[in-house]
Automatic annotation (TrEMBL):
This is Unannotated protein. The keyword Cell membrane applies. GO terms for cellular component: plasma membrane. Pfam families: LPG_synthase_TM. It is a multi-pass membrane protein. Its main location: membrane. The lineage of its organism: unclassified sequences, metagenomes, ecological metagenomes.
Length: 338
């Protein structure tokens, strides 16, 4: 929810280019192409590299792989349950960001479908295009759909910052004298590299589009502020998504018997998500794993436990929803909702 918002005009261009959008989203045209499969394979390889790095570098006391194998199933199920909550909260955000009446159940399904398309497109562009299509099919004008999507992103950013500033004074890691892990330098180097590349990409877009973007935001914000119900749904939904992700990470830590306060986990997640939001990889792949492990070790969590918990968290919340997302995507296409 905190990733930099794609420019509204960019979204319109993407939505108008059916073949290009089909390739970016995955299967909008209904036919898989070789390029799509290559993109999927590349993403899976990237995941393998990230997981391997985490497993091989987390070598304190026992391997992270062994730690994962002995994880408590009940807590892993809890991670999945909390992850499911994020889709309901994201649907609330979408409903609150537009004046068009949306079916709640179908909007939740649309969020699940977004979890599929966003795995293969950086910056959340795939989900943004899908959201615009969904709102248009529900009766919104193109400008209204793009505005709602952008407003959703701005609300997420505002809530993210508010939570971070509110919780930071209670972050125990600020007072701890923790020896960094031996591989801390490699973690930091990877994270900084991804952030720098991502920032360069986003900064290139800002000078060209910021005026139109702010103009759309101003109009959308004025509409929401005049409707307390919409504003409540938008803000509570945004907060719910962020808090649920933090809770999922905490449950993953508990599954490997790592004891970290919920406040510390939440602050670590907020920082990691912000750093990963400008990564050039889909869903911050690579950047967020590194940031989470580094942040958790700062709270005193052993590197092995931190790495194992992050792998569990990402497998359940990032990769597990891909197949249900594909099913949801195809269902929405079949009934003409996108």
């Amino acid at each position: 929810m905190t990733s930099p918002s794609p420019d509204p005009e960019d979204l319109l261009e993407i939505a108008d280019l059916a073949p290009s959008a089909a390739t970016a989203v995955g299967e909008i045209s209904g036919r898989w192409r070789v390029a799509t499969w290559l993109r999927h394979a590349t993403t899976i390889v990237a995941l393998g590299v990230v997981v391997t790095v985490l497993l091989l570098t987390a070598t304190r006391s026992e391997s992270a792989l062994t730690t994962i194998a002995h994880a408590r199933p009940a807590w892993i199920v809890a991670v999945a349950g909390v992850a499911a909550v994020t889709y309901a909260m994201a649907a609330a955000c979408t409903i609150g960001s537009t004046t068009v009446r949306l079916a709640r159940g179908r909007t939740v399904v649309m969020q699940v479908a977004s979890s599929f398309v966003n795995r293969f497109v950086p910056g959340g562009v795939g989900g943004a295009v899908l959201n615009v299509r969904y709102l248009e099919r529900a009766g919104a004008r193109r400008s209204e759909a793009v505005t709602a999507n952008a407003l959703n992103n701005v609300a997420g950013l505002a809530v993210h910052l508010a939570l971070f500033l509110g919780l930071l004074p209670f972050f125990g890691g600020l007072q701890r004298d923790v020896d960094p892990p031996d591989d801390a330098g490699a973690y930091v180097a990877i994270l900084v590299g991804l952030v720098v590349v991502g920032a360069a990409v986003w900064i290139r877009w800002i000078p060209q589009h910021w005026k139109g973007h702010l103009r759309v935001m101003q109009l959308a914000a004025s509409d929401v502020l005049r409707d307390p119900r919409r504003l409540t749904l938008l803000l509570l939904g945004s907060a719910g998504v962020t808090l649920a992700h933090g809770a999922g990470l905490w449950c993953a830590l508990r599954s490997v018997d790592a004891h970290v306060t919920p406040t510390d986990v939440m602050v670590v997640y907020l920082v990691a998500a912000a750093a990963a939001s400008i990564s050039p990889t889909p869903g911050g792949l690579g950047a967020i794993e590194v940031a989470l492990v580094t942040g958790l070790t700062r709270t005193g969590t052993p590197t092995t436990a931190a790495a194992a918990a992050v792998v569990i968290y990402r497998l359940v919340t990032y990769w597990l929803p891909v197949l249900p997302g594909l099913v949801a995507f195809r269902r929405l296409r079949r009934i003409g909702a996108i």
